[in-house]
Design brief:
Elements: E1 10-14, H1 29-41, E2 46-50, H2 56-64, E3 68-71
Parallel strand pairs: 2-3
Antiparallel strand pairs: 1-2
Length: about 80
């Protein structure tokens, strides 16, 4: 059974930002990737949280761009 990648959710956080994942807005992969690339290009430290339905391909794209990711806390 294949996953629907449209159901994966991402949260883009800046490292210096005191907000928690619950304060961040959920966005699609493409939106998160573009936001994170822009912030990284401007010299800001970014951390992207993802839900467990994210694909390995999506996570690889973040890694190739040098963007830190981790699984979003559940609950």
């Amino acid at each position: 059974m294949t996953r629907d990648i449209r159901s994966s959710t991402f949260y883009v956080l800046e490292q210096h930002d005191a907000s928690s994942p619950t304060d961040a807005l959920p966005v699609s992969f493409e939106e998160a990737f573009e936001q994170a690339k822009k912030l990284t290009a401007s010299g800001r430290a970014v951390h992207v949280l993802y839900t467990d339905d994210a694909t390995q391909m999506q996570l690889t794209r973040f890694a190739e761009a040098g963007i830190r990711t981790s699984l979003a806390p559940q609950g």
